[in-house]
Amino acid sequence: MPSYILASAKLPFSMKEKTWYRIQTVLDRKGNLGVSVNGRAVLEVSLNDYAPGGKPVSTIGPFGFGAWQDQAAYFRNTVAYDTANKSEIYRNPLTSPDTLAEYGTRENQGTVCLDGPKRDRLVWLGDFYHTSRIIGASTGEFNYTKGTFDFFLKTQIQTGQIAIAPYLGYDPTKTKTLSLERVYGLDDYQLLGFLAFAHYIRQTDDLEYARKTWAQWEKQLSWITGKINSTSGLADFSFTFLGAAQGGSLGSCATVETLNAAADIAEAIGKKISSKYRKLATDLTRSINQKLWNKGLGTYGFSLGDMNTSSVAGTAFCLSSGAASKKLAVSAVAALDELQLGPGYKDRSNLDDHDSETKISPNTNGFLLQAILAGEDWDRAGKLIRNVWGAMLKDPETSSGASWEYLTPAGQPGLSGFTSLGHPWGGAATYILTEWVAGLRNADGIQGFGYKNWIVNPELGVHMGLSHASAKIPLYPSGELKVEWFIKSKKMTVQISAPIETKGVFWIGKTKKTLEGESKYRFNVGL
């Protein structure tokens, strides 16, 4: 429900804590709003004087109660009347347990993951991209992953879209007093939400869950594929958070990644639509490289309408999706110098370095890490990890033990910029450290689902100058996969523990070893 700071007024009398007051709010059809406390008028404003987001504040819709941020208040005995004829239209003592469900303040019905738990009562679909991968590389609490997807899927509407930020505490299948229409507005979050699901399936090989929910994901994918413009061959969305909506590199390349991931899952569960997704991804990739590659910049343009601007998110997904060839990937990574600012990279090249609103986003820089690794720029990747995520750890006064929402160019948490010091969207380093520094990750394609086939490739860790690294992957539904390596006198000692039914490949530089048929491996490699 929208909330606005309309006005403030100094009360003509004192108010005490732990005391009940009768508060009356009157709103007429002309937009005049008045507030009284115990019968004494304290505030009168006209909604016509306010237009947040360029739109007038509506006099029609739901109502709710709440104290200001970090404050608490109790409410009881609410009555709503028709302003015109004074007839009673709603009454609730607010003392029944049913009230908690009606007002969206009940306890969780299942496990869900928030993004910014102090501030939000929203479950963000796009931000769950990082959280899903973090869980798979750390705690292995996959019940939180599936619980969050179950919650999201309850919000799917006829178009196939899933709510991008459903409200914690509401059951969207039962609650009729709250409209969710406003929470379908970030189209790129549909892509990120599906990719979060795809990463869960890659981590776990939970094909039972994939089959159980596939009809809904396929419906969402139908909406996504409908956004590919038949004239330009690129993706055209209505509104996106991370990049240009119309003919943008972010939207188009993230769609390629989504379609290829969908094809893998569809193939794994025996759905013939897999070939359709692969063809759409191939055709879209061709259009991206023909129309969005800026040879002069040596990277992808922001959009068809703004080819002279480059972006972190566009670069990230054009590389991580495989849309870029190895040659283009190397060029695009080198072109990131244009975006470098402070410890990381600003979101777009046309942002003013000195503007106080220009921040470093660990969210988009997290996407970028994967892209830099695709371009095999080990030095750049290592510096980004140390600088952005190192900044979150080095100062005891600002280190929270969790990842931050934003950084300033000076490497501070940017507290004046509406930021959070406990934000999973900033936690990409958690899975990158496992997958690329220690080097333990899935093999490509459906062969890598559930780590049936795995890779140990510690190239980044060696380039970062580490002498020792270890990582452990929790497997679904049980078990684990572990790697540990040491370097001494230009010799690497590697130890790997894996379920005996799995297969792996170790490689670094020109050295490559195939590993299978055992549960423990130990060997030395010259560097």
Automatic annotation (TrEMBL):
GO terms for biological process: carbohydrate metabolic process. GO terms for molecular function: catalytic activity. InterPro entries: 6-hairpin_glycosidase_sf, 6hp_glycosidase-like_sf, Bac_rhamnosid6H, Bac_rhamnosid_C. Residues 101-328 form the Alpha-L-rhamnosidase six-hairpin glycosidase domain. Gene3D superfamilies: 1.50.10.10, Maltose phosphorylase, domain 3. It holds the Pfam family Bac_rhamnosid6H. Residues 450-520 form the Alpha-L-rhamnosidase C-terminal domain. This is Is able to hydrolyze alpha-1. The lineage of its organism: Eukaryota, Fungi, Dikarya, Ascomycota, Pezizomycotina.
